[in-house]
Every structure is written in C-alpha cells, then in structure tokens.
Write a structure and sequence with these properties.
The structure holds three protein chains of three kinds. Chain B has helices at residues 2-5, 23-50, 54-59, 72-80, 91-121, 127-137, 142-155, 162-186, 190-198, 203-214, 216-232, 235-240, 248-257, 265-286, 288-297. By secondary structure, chain B is mainly alpha-helical. Helices cover 73% and strands 0% of the residues of chain C.
C-alpha cells in the first residue's frame, strides 16, 4: 500500500512559480522517473514529496495518508541524494544506522538490517571505513544503503548517478534496477538523463518550467509524444520536424510536405490516430530517424546528402530536404552506400503531428 | 571582514635547493636576521633580566647574560609579588584569569556555534538582518558601550563579580565567534541536513551528532581566538571583574606600577614572563591554526 | 506548515538570547551613549538635552586635542609601518629562504601576547636610565641619546614602534598566504618575459593582492582606534598626557574623572572614527559585488 497521490501542487519562490498544478498518481511498486532539463522543477517536486520543501497549494498523499504537513521523518520515506550527503564523521555502518538509532530501533534489529543492506549492495567489507576513504561508486552504494536500511515503502532518488563517470553510471543503473525488482518498493527518481529514464522507469513524468508535460509509460512518451517539447527532448538524435499542411478530403487526410517528389502532392495519413477530427491547415510533422527508410521509388521526400556519421552499430545520415535538415538512422553497411541524393519514404503509420501554435499533439 | 580573512592559512613553499650565494641573497638574509632580532630582543631582555639577581642588574647592562641564572625571581613573582600592600604574588591573578577564562571560553564557543549553525542552515525571515547586526556589532569600539554596560550589570547585581566578567566576555565575543561559525556552517552542503532530517533527526540532534563532530578545525580556531583574547584582555577585566577577581594582566600592570622601596626589576619581569607564557604556549602548540584564529579576532573590539 | 514553523521556531528560540544581548548591550548601549553625549551629564547621567555643549567642551579641552591628533599620528605611521614591514617580510620569506618556519615563528609570536606585556617589555627596553640608552653609553658612546619614552614630543612614537612590533607579523602572515595563492603560471610567464624578480613583485604580483591590502588596512585601523592597553602599559599616556589616545581618554573620563558627558561625547567621536575607517571598505566591497 504505497501509492503516491500528488494533487494540484503549486509552489512559489516569491513571485516565481516553480511548480504549476502538478497532478500525478503513482501506483504501488512503480518506478517513476521525473525527467526534464535543469530548472524544470523536478528536484523541487521530489523535495516536496520528501517534505523538505513546503508547498503553498495542493496536497500530497503517501499510501492513502495525507502527508502535506507532515515532517519528512514521519512520512515513511527514504532518500538518496545527488552529492550522497554522507555524514563525514561517521563510519559507513554509522551512516547507515543513524536514522535507525535516532528512532531508537533495537540494536539487534539495526545490526541485522545494516548487514542485510551491506550484503545486498556488496559493501560488507567497507562498514568500518569513513566516507573520505571511499571511491565515488562506493559512496553511492553507501548512500543507497542508508536509504535501504530504513525499509520504507517509498524510496526517493535525486539525480543519484550524476556524479559518477560513464562506466560506473551504467553499472549502478543496472544495480538500481535490480534493487527495484528485488524490493518491489515504490521508487521516484529524478534525472535529466533520458537514457536513465528510459531504461529504469515504468513511468516517466516529463517536466518543463514547473509543468508536467506528459506522464506515461516510456514507450508512450517515445512513440506518442504529447507535445513538441516531449518529442524533442526524448530520443537521441532527436526527432526530425518538418512543416506541412493538412488537407482532409472525403476518403482520408492528405498531408502536404515540402520536397515531396515522385509526382505526389501529398501522402495520406488517414490511419493516424487523431485526437480530434483533423482540420485543414499548417501542421508540424515529427519523424523519428529510425522510422525513415531510403527507397528507390514510390512517394518519398527528395533529399540532398549532407554527410554520414558512422556510429559503429549503425550510421546516421543527414539530408537536406527542401531546406530542412533531416536525419535518418541506417544500418552501418547502408550508410556506406548513400549516394549524392536519396529518397526518404514517409512512415505514415509512425509519424507524429503537432499543432504549430499550441505545440500539442493533434 | 571575517569572510575575507578567516581562511588565511600559510602553506609552506617547496624546500629550497642549493641557491648560489649572491650579494642579493646575503642582503636578504641580513635583513631577515636583523628583523628577527628586532622581534626577539624585547622579550629576550625581559627573560634575561628575570633570571638575574638584583645586584647583577644594578651592576650590569640589559644585554649582559646572567652569571648565575636562577628562577628565584619567578618563584618570588609567583608567590609574593606585591600589589600595593597585598603581597600574595601573581598567582592570584593567574587563578583569577583561569576562573574567568574557562567558563567564558566554553559558553561563548558553545553559544556561538549553535547560533552560527542556526543562522547558516535554518534560514528564516530576518536572519540576514541578524547577521548584518552581528557584523556591525563586531566593529563597535568597547568604549562606546562600557559605561552603560556597567550600569546594566549593576542593576542586575553582576557588576564587579566573577559571573559579571564572564557574562561580559561571552557577550563581547558573540559577534565575531558567531560569524566565524556561521561562515563555516554555510560551507557545509545543505543536502547533509536534508538527509539527517529524513533520518528523523531534529535541530539539536543534527547539531550534536553531525555538525559538531565535523567542526574540529573551526573549534580549534575559535578556541585559540578566545583563549588568547580573554587571557590577554585588560580593559574588560579592569572595569568589570571587581577587586577580588582582577585577571593576571591587570594585576601585572598593578605590580609593575606599585613601587615600594627599590624597584625589583627581576620580579617584575618574571611576572611579565609568567603572564605572557600561557598564550605563548598556545601559539607554539597551535601552529597554522593560530593565524586563522588571530585574524578572525582582529576585528574584535 | 506545522513542521516548517516548528523548525524555524527552534532556530529562532536558539537565537533569541543572542538577539536580546546584541540589541541591549551593543545597540542599546550605543544609543544610550549617543543620547547622553547630548545631555548635561556630569558625574552622574542626566537626561536634559543641551545640544552640542558636551562636544563644544570636548573640543575646547587641550587633552582631547592631543589625544585625537595622536590617533592620526599613530594611525598613519603604524599602518604604513606595519604594512610596509609586514609585506616586505612576506616577500622576503616567499623567495624560498632557508629556515622559513623559524623566521615565520619569530615574526608572529608577539601577536600572541597581551598588549600589556608588549608595553612593559618595550617600556623597559626604551627606558633611558636602564635600557638601550644606558647600554649604548656603557659601550663608550657617552653622548648617545634615546629618551623618546620621557620626551613630550616623541613619546607617541614609542607607541608606534611597539605597535609595529606587535602587528607586523599578522600582516606578514596574511600577505604570505596571499603570495602563496598566486597562480604559479603567472610566475612562469614573468620568467619567460625576462622580468626581474623584484619587478615582478612590484608590477605583477603585489597589485593582485590589493584586496588583501585593504583588509589589512582595515584590521590595522581598528587596532588604532581601540588601542588602550598598549598606551597604559608603555607610557600611561605620559609624560603628562602627551601620548594619550582617545580610547584611554574615554576610559579615564568615565571611570577616573567621572565625567559621563565628556566620556560619551569622546566615545561618539571614536565611533565616528571607526565609521570613517570602515566606510571606504564597505563601499569597495559593495561596488565589487
């Protein structure tokens, strides 16, 4: 019973509003990632859930209990910090047990839990060391261990891997995923790294300027981004955007695109899942680089080849389509065979359409 | 002010490697040695004279080494040097200074540490104002405050008593000490406090279990500042301590100032050495912390 | 916010005694002294306002004139002297001398001692009948004269000497820390450009330490205004009141001559001196940030 309900939370720093009507329902045992660029309010939201920051409006429920005005220690949560925030004068064991000692947990119980967490994180041989004697990765494990011994139903992570080098980061990412599967606890994880978000999350809340732009499964955010911002933020290299014109006709919906060749005026996007009946007018078309295929004939965009970036497993080819840059992900071998011009097939089933004015998906 | 100077710590230069002897180097060492003599001579003369008997002093010069050095004058200064008619020695002032020093140092540092921690890590509306008021308070000359303070302490019955002088030292030490601790605690990452709060620790638990154990360095600096500052104080002791509790510095000046019969230079100088010794010992033991402590306190009063 | 309020309550409760002590003992007392300086107060405080009468009388007092003028003589000579000697010693020590630690220890130790001890040591050393003068005469230079301590016109300079003796070490320590914090590449650059070491110090290195120099000047200026113990032990303001300083003038007026009005007016003048010494500093700090 560790669902989390965040209801219409608003937070201000003076006149600046840092959280705007944030409303999330997080299921028990979910791994939710708060994702977004720096300054989007994701860490503030996490602090608000932890009770470290006051909110001016709205409410927070943990496991069905209203905790909006409850001290952090009484919320039944544990947290891992970006800088690890280990107590420098205490040993590893002292760091892990401090919270339990404050709460007067019996000694035997403390020892048992510390040993359990140490074994789980493979830091049993470090228990007598001081934080200054540990490497970055070891400190990270201790910081996680300090949270684990609390055995709370909810764990909060504030950019826990951002101070590690690339190799350790991958390693710890796997470790955290394993912990989530082992413990089955509810986890909320803040990061600005979309790879971390995509690999770890069961749900992602993508935030911008204090607003949750989209909340859903990682695939949803990737395949069906709710706005231009989400589409541009998730995915590397990011989605290609082309200006088009939508023209509904009797049978389907025509989409006119610049650079469309092969005697075609428009492609038909009648099968696209429109949120509301399609209206005629200007539209922004989003195409993932891996959804575009190079074809020899049929309706396609005509592009001049700019350059090809080999990336080992695959290649990324850049084309100029009527003055717009378009990237296409190709197999490594195909990348070598790209000529001076190419024909780019429009994946009518997999594209995203956005209203250029509201920037929202249509 | 303290922001700028309390980080002063002199690091050592790399060890010199076989410099050639040039006229410039000779001049440099000559100047350094002459300077060293300038700094050493006044105290060495006091020490030298304190080891001589009176007839040697009368017969010879200040630079003559004692023919038969003895600590007799030190013993006399300690047990029977006279202030006016009272001949109980400077030990009276020594013990008075100890009685003033110990509680003043302990309480001023404890209060300042908690205050600095509260100002640094538990900000609230008006905490900046308090900080500004503390900082300006550190610059007010004692003379502006002395007389009204005497009246306040008389009103509450503490004027001229041991608790009175202790309270005065605590209060006058607060601005600078609080700023030192506040600057130190501002440098500690706020996440540490957050982690402790999630662990369930409150204001005092965080202070005593986490902040205080991290404060060894700054505690040493504060300790040096307060021990030397309070031991060397003359003005506050003179005015607030009362006849029974005069600190060693005041008694020393009285001993030297009261002449009955022949002036006993050796005893006067031995008393001076005895008064100088405690802070000198602190200086030689504390090494690099000393400069930080003194610079931090230089703005006081 | 129950929790937040509770937290800040502890913080505020902890600070309350300090706030009260600061308000009453520093600002309250300061306000009292300023107010009393405008009253008729004599031996006892009297709360009838008489405008600037106390200041009129103060500035008509020859002893105050001497004290106030002495503060400037002492201030200018002590600050320049300590700054020059301290900086010079720091630069010399910085040139990789042998026994650096010993020199540093010697230059700094006077700082640990009471001004009373410093004053007495120098009083004996400068005493014409027992000290340096008689020593030099005994060496055969019968006409040697060094009697500043008992010379009306020169007594204030003995205070300058003793104060420089006590204070230069602090300047040396601060400046040396500054010199050691200079980027080593700057030194390499001056070597590449073939600039002599002394020239590098004067034109390149020391100008970078300007903020430290300002800090030092403020520290020394505050020492000047508060100098009391040193005068008491060294000259006791004498001969007569030739080497008196405002800090001693105020204490004497309040506790020996029992003239509260004069003591308060003189104390307010001291406060003005401190403000005058600090104002440029705070102006610079503010302008920089």
């Amino acid at each position: 019973m560790s669902t989390i309900r965040i209801q219409n939370v608003n937070k201000f720093y003076g006149a600046l509003q840092v959280l705007k009507n944030v409303d999330l329902a997080i299921g028990s045992g979910e791994f939710t990632v708060l994702l977004g660029p720096s300054g989007c309010g994701k860490s503030t939201l996490l602090s608000a859930i932890a009770g470290l920051e006051e909110i001016q409006e709205g409410g927070i429920e943990l496991g069905g209990r209203d905790v909006t005005h409850v001290e952090p220690a009484k919320r039944d949560i544990a947290m891992v910090f970006q800088s690890y925030a280990l107590y420098p004068t205490m040993t590893v064991a002292g760091n892990m047990s401090f919270g339990l000692r404050v709460n007067r947990t019996p000694k035997a119980e403390i020892d048992q839990r510390v040993n359990w967490a140490a074994r789980l994180l493979q830091i049993e041989n470090l228990l007598d060391r001081k934080p200054s004697q540990l490497s970055g990765g070891q400190r990270q494990r201790v910081a996680i261990g300090r949270a684990l011994v609390r055995k709370t139903p909810v764990y909060l992570f504030d950019e826990p891997l951002s101070n590690l080098d690339a190799k350790l980061r991958t390693e710890m990412r796997v470790e955290i995923k394993r912990l989530h599967q082992t413990l089955g606890a509810t986890m909320i994880y803040v990061t600005h790294d979309q790879i971390e978000a995509m690999t770890l999350a069961t749900h992602i809340a993508l935030m911008r300027a204090g607003v949750v732009e989209q909340f859903g499964h990682p695939e949803d955010l990737y395949q069906r981004p709710a706005s231009l911002f989400v589409a541009g933020f998730i995915g590397s290299p990011s989605m290609n955007f082309l200006p088009g014109t939508l023209a509904p006709n009797g049978a389907g919906v025509g989409l006119e695109l610049p650079g469309l060749g092969g005697g075609q005026q428009a492609v038909d996007v009648g099968s696209y899942a429109f949120a509301a009946p399609a209206k005629a007018g200007e539209i922004t078309v989003g195409l993932r680089p891996e959804d575009i295929e190079l074809v020899n004939d049929g309706p396609a965009l005509e592009g001049k080849t700019l350059f090809v970036e080999p990336m080992g497993a695959d290649s990324l080819a850049w084309f100029d389509v009527a003055g717009h840059r378009v990237s296409v992900r190709l197999k490594a071998d195909d990348g070598k065979r790209v000529g001076e011009t190419a024909r780019l097939a429009v994946p009518t089933e997999k594209l995203s359409l956005f209203d250029p004015n509201t920037e929202n998906r249509v | 002010m303290t922001v700028a100077v309390d980080q002063v710590a002199v690091t050592s230069a790399p060890k010199p490697r076989g410099f050639q002897i040039t006229p410039g180097r000779i001049g440099l060492y000559a100047f350094l040695i002459i300077s060293a003599l300038f700094f050493l001579i006044p105290l060495l003369i006091v020490f030298n004279t304190s080891l001589k008997p009176m007839d040697e002093i009368r017969a010879g010069d200040i630079f003559d080494l004692p023919i038969d050095p003895s600590f007799a004058a030190w013993a006399e200064a300690w047990t029977s040097a006279c202030t006016g008619r009272n001949c109980e020695g400077i030990r009276v002032g020594f013990w008075n200074s100890v009685k003033i020093l110990v509680p003043s140092v302990i309480f001023s540092i404890l209060i300042a540490a908690i205050n600095g921690y509260a100002l640094a890590q538990w900000r609230f509306k008006g905490s900046e104002l308090i900080l500004g008021a503390l900082m300006l308070g550190a610059f007010i000359p004692y003379q502006v405050i002395l007389y009204p303070m005497v009246r306040i302490l008389s009103t509450v019955g503490l004027y001229g008593s041991l608790p009175g002088i202790i309270v005065v030292h605590i209060i006058f030490g607060l601005p600078v000490l609080t700023l030192i601790f506040r600057n130190f605690y501002s440098g500690i990452p706020i996440e540490l406090i957050k982690a402790a709060r999630i662990d369930g620790a409150g204001f005092f638990r965080i202070f005593f279990s986490i902040m205080l154990p991290m404060s060894t360095n700054i505690l040493i600096v504060a300790l040096i500042l307060q021990v030397t500052g309070i031991w060397n104080d003359y003005l506050l002791g003179l005015i607030f301590a009362g006849r029974e509790n005069l600190p060693m510095t005041v008694q020393l000046n009285n001993i030297v100032g009261s002449v009955t019969g022949e002036r006993t230079f050796n005893v006067d100088m031995a008393a001076t050495m005895l008064t100088a010794l405690p802070p000198l010992i602190v200086y030689f033991l504390s090494g690099r912390y000393f400069v930080r402590g003194i610079t931090a306190g230089a703005v006081k009063g | 916010m129950v929790g937040a309020l509770g937290r800040n309550l502890t913080s505020k409760a902890v600070l309350t005694p300090t706030i009260i002590a600061m308000t009453v003992c520093f600002y309250g007392c300061m306000a009292w002294t300023i107010y009393v300086s405008f009253t008729r107060s004599g031996m006892l405080p009297n709360y009838d306002l008489v405008g600037l009468a106390q200041y009129d009388r103060l500035w008509g007092d020859n002893r105050w004139h001497v004290s106030f003028a002495n503060m400037f003589i002492f201030g200018v000579l002590f600050i320049t002297g300590a700054l020059a000697l301290g900086t010079l010693l720091a630069v010399l020590i910085d040139t990789k001398v042998r026994m650096e630690g010993a020199f540093r220890t010697i230059f700094l130790y006077p700082l640990s001692m009471s001004f009373i001890v410093t004053g007495l040591a120098w009083r004996w050393f400068l005493d014409p009948t027992d000290g340096l003068q008689s020593f030099v005469r005994s060496l055969g230079w019968e006409t040697f004269e060094f009697d500043w301590l008992v010379d009306r016109d020169m007594a204030i300079y003995t205070i300058v000497i003793a104060a420089i003796w006590q204070g230069s070490g602090l300047i040396m320590a601060i400046m040396l820390a500054g010199l050691r914090s200079i980027d080593r590449d700057v030194w390499k650059a001056t070597k590449m450009d073939g600039i002599p070491t002394w020239r590098a110090y004067v034109s390149v290195i020391l100008p970078q330490l300007q903020p430290l120099v300002i800090t030092c000047v403020v520290l020394l200026a505050i020492t000047v205004v508060k100098s009391f113990d040193l005068v008491v032990a060294l000259t006791n303001g004498g001969p007569g009141f030739a080497s008196d300083l405002p800090a001693k003038f105020v204490v004497d007026a309040a506790f020996e001559r029992a003239n509260i009005g004069q003591a308060s007016a003189a104390a307010v003048m001291m406060l003005m001196a401190v403000i005058a010494a600090l104002a440029p500093y705070f102006y610079l700090v503010r302008r920089r940030s």
